[in-house]
Amino acid sequence: MTRILMMFAAGFLAISLWSAAAEGDLAQGGSVDGADKLVAKLKALRPDIPIEKVSTSPVPGIYALELPGGTVFYGTADGRYLFAGDLYELTDDDLVNLAEVGRTEKRRDLMAGVSKTEMVIFPAVGETKGVVSVFTDVDCGYCRKLHQEVPKLNQMGIEVRYLAYPRAGVGSRSYQKIVSAWCAADPNKAITQLKSGMEIPDLSCENPVAAQFDLGKQVGVTGTPAIVLEDGRLLPGYMPAAELAETVGI
């Protein structure tokens, strides 16, 4: 307990030193001004660490190193110290996870790059009042449970866009099943059949399943179903239709 309290205290102290943060992308052969020593030292010790982005943090002299999947390291400009964890801002009435704010923005941008033609879409009935994108597996129990809520969501005006995330990985039996659904003449019917425990013929075609599985890792998916809202927020796990509609703002 004492250790946990000390960790939170350190985080809160860092937040109290908040200052305007300016971001910069890690370009090949360069980095944010002042972070060169930190990046060089880390790459010398762990050349396999894939740093996607370097930015100034709210704490003077501390830089944020963003890795794939939303993991963030923080380090000192002199390259001597490195630590992992999220920074929180203490507002007048809430704790704001600043690291998650950055993840949300990145997630929104990544999702915006996915063509609707590559998704299996269950459209809203009547006016579309909201959209949710769902990384799904056909053998996942809670994915099947969420699929039973899709007609209710559609009736509420929520469009459901499925992206493939076979949890067993590319090449697994679950992967082949979901590829078959994407390749079917009627993908909506096929995915519904699979989520009902039925079998469908194995099919093969040019498909986005492997790419969407990789995208899921990039946006921070660790299990299914994983729901991504239009603003980039990630909602892990099953949610009943009414609760999800409330979260969407309907």
Task: Give a verbal description of the structure.
With 250 residues, the chain is of the alpha+beta class. It folds into 2 domains: 2-102, Nuclear Transport Factor 2, Chain: A, CATH 3.10.450.70; 113-248, Glutaredoxin. Helices cover 37% and strands 20% of the residues. It contains 9 helices and 12 strands. The protein has helices at 2-16, 36-45, 98-112, 141-147, 150-155, 173-183, 187-195, 209-219, 241-248, and strands spanning 23-25, 53-56, 62-66, 72-76, 82-84, 88-90, 95-97, 120-122, 130-136, 158-164, 226-229, 234-236. The strands form 3 sheets. A 5-stranded antiparallel β-sheet has the order 1-2-3-4-5, with no helix packed on it. The chain has a 5-stranded mixed β-sheet with strand order 8-10-9-11-12. The protein has a two-stranded antiparallel sheet with strand order 6-7. A hairpin with a 4-residue loop joins strand 11 (226-229) and strand 12. The two termini are 40 Å apart. The model is unreliable at 1-31 (pLDDT under 50).
